[in-house]
Design a protein that fits this description.
6 helices; alpha+beta; 5 strands
Length: 215
Amino acid sequence: MESTTFNGWPVRAPALLAQIAADNRAERWPELREGHAAVVRGPTLALAAELTEEFGPVRVFRPHVTRRFRPDAPPLRTDTGGVATSAGGCGLAVVLSVDALTVTVGHWRFDRDQRSRYRAAVDAEGPGEELAGLLRRLAADGLPADPEGELCIRPRGWRPDHPRIRLAQRRGLQVARRWELGPWVSSPEPLERVRSAWRGGSPPVGGLGNNLWPA
């Protein structure tokens, strides 16, 4: 039976992920399976179990990459983690990679209708300023908007001097926090860091999403 108490990832976990990244071949999986289950997937399942009571079901990443839509992708994941959805429909994620623990809250990518409603909200002075102010507060609390969601081009029809043009350029909206790995990863501390970030980000980001660009 899998443990439901999270005590951290062993120090071997990032090293094993680094080994996979250095030689990412499907035929290596039989020799990696047991160690991966013990030091990577097992602790991640325990973390998910501890988070589930407060945040709902947490889906843990499988060790293998789904290649149906990315046939050229490496066959094995070089990270571990899980995703959940808050009661307000806000995406929650935690990822342990070779060198960092990253937590995100929000909408990674808008669909076409969401994007239209989001941009309309950004364009309107009241909702747009509300969103801009929220993001400033979250950034001050250590949860800045994820730069991965920014487009390099200006959306069609938007003037370059619009006061919220940078927000209009977003393909999605999530806030993120990233910590470089250290000895703390092998303790229960990651659980508290994830809880704190999800608690701090999901009500405001999810609430705005429901009001301004509902799914």
